[in-house]
């Protein structure tokens, strides 16, 4: 881990043009995989969606639950929640043990996405791009809905305790709180805000981008893997290895999202993850390997 | 409880002018109390502030923690967090057992206050009034800071577990999640948004105001009292009585804030709370009684 971290620091001395800028997504690479792992991954995603759909029913008050339903399910899909379930299975757990944590993570990401797209008076108007959804609701309603998603995520988690694993759930809550809070995702969002010019164009310093990727995709995936490991009953050693694997995978994802698909940093992160994965050699690796595009 | 609830519904048939409109605060009435209860109440508030000050130190990244420190401590003081500690003591607990829950409640309220005052593009400009603080930071930073406070509150709570009371902490988290989330405070905020005209003037239907008071001050105080009771080791019966006492007190507070200081509803809420308080007759009642202006 020290190697990739120091490598990320060194990146600041390199010119961005040294890095290839071909955005691709992991989804594309999944078609190259054998059939079962892909289906396995899809079933993880489907289980989380089904769990959330049964939790966020459209009920009274409609003005509250209708926007929440819409905004949760229209947020861009990420690999964070499914990684949580995959990690749970990797340590020998059943996916239902981690389904609430995975759903909570999805809610946190949807809340972040919603608030990132609020039209605030000091925020430059978003450039029209296909990835930015239309605003079906007014900014005020979207603000409040995002505000409602976060405690709802914690509620789902807290309620999932059957009286036997309270301590694991609290541990998972500390992990999630830290990663979505001021020292994690919100720190990354601050940096993005500070680096955005008044015309809405992001100023791209490679070092700064890497710090954002660390705080955003890196730590979110790391947290997801840890939560899955904890709830699946993994040992401390397994959990710490999952923390590294998740972080590396998040870095690969985050770099790819910003156009860094190849290069030393991506290879280093992939190799580091593979090395840690060897520890789990006798266990279910397919789903995790899909993430690493192996 | 049924009586006051049905009474609140009946209120809609009354004309607002039947109700006296003299705003006062409980703080004013506290000067009429004997010395010790007042000091006791002040010491509860001071303990919560000290706990939060030691938790939110101004550290790196400064751009994150400096606004959080400012926005938490500049939010208007409420009686919710101290009620949590008072309830804990009422059931025989030590206040340190509930200090994290009280701090989390303060953070949730500060986050709500911060987001309520964000200048959104669809939100009418706030009328200048002394209660509305100056915006020291930009809207984007205030949005993110509010977003950071909520998970930080849950983190404080989750970390407060010494391994002995995990189940109580999870129970408290469910209570807090529900009351600050979409079926509680956020529902009240929606109603307020919907009832605000384009010039920023609130449309005041008494029935609607009462529903907001129920969801906002009523349920927040109810939740605070329950959390204190749970963490102080209260019995189920004590906890349910605290739920009613807290709700009644919140209703009195919320009605007073909106100019309804006297009248049947206020008296009924006070009497209901006093009736429930009789159950605790051998215990420490001073702090709670201050709240009820007895």
UniProtKB/TrEMBL annotation, chains A, B:
InterPro entries: Isoprenoid_synthase_dom_sf. PANTHER family: FARNESYL DIPHOSPHATE SYNTHASE, HETERODIMERIC GERANYLGERANYL PYROPHOSPHATE SYNTHASE SMALL SUBUNIT, CHLOROPLASTIC-LIKE. The keyword Chloroplast does not apply. Its cofactor is Mg(2+). GO terms for molecular function: metal ion binding; prenyltransferase activity. This is Uncharacterized protein. Keywords: Magnesium, Metal-binding. The lineage of its organism: Eukaryota, Viridiplantae, Streptophyta, Embryophyta, Tracheophyta. It comes from the Eukaryota.
């Amino acid at each position: 881990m020290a190697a990739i971290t120091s490598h990320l620091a060194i990146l600041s001395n390199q010119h961005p043009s040294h890095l290839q800028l071909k955005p691709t997504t992991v989804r594309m690479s999944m078609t190259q995989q054998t059939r079962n792992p892909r289906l396995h991954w899809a079933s993880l995603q489907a289980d989380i969606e089904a769990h959330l759909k049964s939790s966020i029913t459209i009920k009274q008050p409609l003005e509250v639950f209708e926007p929440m339903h819409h905004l949760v399910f229209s947020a861009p899909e990420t690999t964070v929640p499914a990684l949580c379930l995959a990690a749970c299975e990797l340590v020998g757990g059943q996916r239902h043990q981690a389904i609430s944590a995975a759903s909570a993570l999805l809610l946190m990401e949807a809340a972040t996405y919603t608030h990132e797209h609020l039209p605030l008076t000091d925020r430059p108007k978003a450039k029209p791009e296909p990835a930015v959804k239309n605003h079906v609701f007014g900014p005020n309603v979207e603000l409040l809905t995002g505000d409602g998603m976060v405690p709802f995520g914690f509620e789902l988690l807290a309620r999932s305790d059957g009286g036997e694993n309270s301590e694991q759930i609290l541990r998972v809550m500390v992990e999630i709180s830290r990663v979505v809070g001021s020292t994690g995702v919100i720190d990354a969002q601050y940096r993005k805000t500070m680096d955005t010019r008044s015309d809405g164009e992001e100023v791209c310093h490679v070092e700064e981008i890497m710090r954002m990727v660390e705080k955003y995709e890196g730590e979110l995936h790391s947290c997801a893997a840890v939560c899955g490991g904890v709830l699946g009953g993994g040992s401390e050693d397994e959990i710490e290895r999952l923390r590294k694997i998740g972080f590396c995978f998040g870095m690969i994802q985050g770099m790819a999202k910003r156009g860094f698909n190849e290069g030393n940093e991506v290879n280093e992160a992939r190799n580091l993850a593979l090395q840690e994965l060897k520890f789990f050699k006798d266990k279910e690796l397919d789903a995790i390997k899909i993430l690493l595009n192996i």
